[in-house]
Amino acid sequence: MIPMVDLKAQYQALKSGIDKRIQKVLDHGQFILGPEVYELEEQLADYVGVSHAITCANGTDALQLSLMALNIKPGDAVFCPTFTFVATAEAISLVGATPVFVDSDPDTFNICPIDLEKRIESTIRDKQLEPKVVIAVDLFGLPANYPALTQIAKQYNLKLVEDAAQGFGGEILGKRAGSFGDIATTSFFPAKPLGCYGDGGAIFTNDDQYAEIIRSLRVHGKGENKYDNIRVGMNSRLDTIQAAILLEKLNAFPEELSIRNSIADCYYKSLSAEIKSPYVPENFTSSWAQFSLLHPQRNDMIVSLRTQDVMCYSYYIKGIHQQKAYEEYVNGEYKIAEMLSECILSIPIYPYMERDEIDRVVEILNAL
Ligand SMILES: Cc1ncc(COP(=O)(O)O)c(C=O)c1O
Question: What does the alpha-carbon distance between residue 84 and residue 264 come to, in Å, rounded to a whole number?
Answer without folding.
Answer: 21
